[in-house]
Design brief:
3 strands; 142 residues; 8% strand; mainly alpha; single chain; 33% helix
Length: 142
């Protein structure tokens, strides 16, 4: 019984994350939180028609979970594909994409993003994203 009480006490004092999941259903809420720390958009790279055709072919052939028509996408997949062609060619379903291309529509937007303002206080500590200016847990598990 004492262990149960201590576990309850500990969990009551652990910080709750603003976000515990990713996905398009969180885009507007994530943007509302992240916008003050983001450079002005747009956050999606425009490609010339030939590159756009090759990009969409890559999306289909590689089974990339990305909607190229989503105006509030949480990732600038075109810039990833354009700037890191070897990583794009090697990508396999389930693999992680680099944080540098996350947009402020992502629940895990951090200071690592090319779209983050200088001195954005959102930093990864292990598997948790923390606002270093306030200590608020932005993304992670309790």
């Amino acid at each position: 019984m004492p262990n149960s009480f201590l576990e309850q006490l500990k969990s009551a004092h652990e910080p709750r994350a603003l976000f515990t999941e990713e996905g398009p259903q969180y885009a507007q809420r994530a943007y509302a939180h992240n916008a003050p720390y983001a450079v002005p958009g747009p956050y999606q790279t425009k490609l010339n028609p030939a590159d756009e055709l090759n990009f969409t072919r890559w999306l289909r052939a590689s089974n990339v979970p990305f909607n190229p028509n989503d105006p509030t996408s949480d990732y600038d997949m075109r810039r990833f594909w354009l700037e890191q062609p070897q990583a794009a060619a090697a990508w396999r379903p389930g693999a992680h994409f680099p944080d540098i291309y996350k947009t402020p529509y992502d629940t895990t937007f951090s200071g690592e993003s090319r779209y983050a303002r200088p001195n954005t206080p959102f930093m990864w500590i292990g598997d948790n994203l923390v606002d270093m200016s306030t200590g608020q847990l932005i993304f992670g598990a309790r």
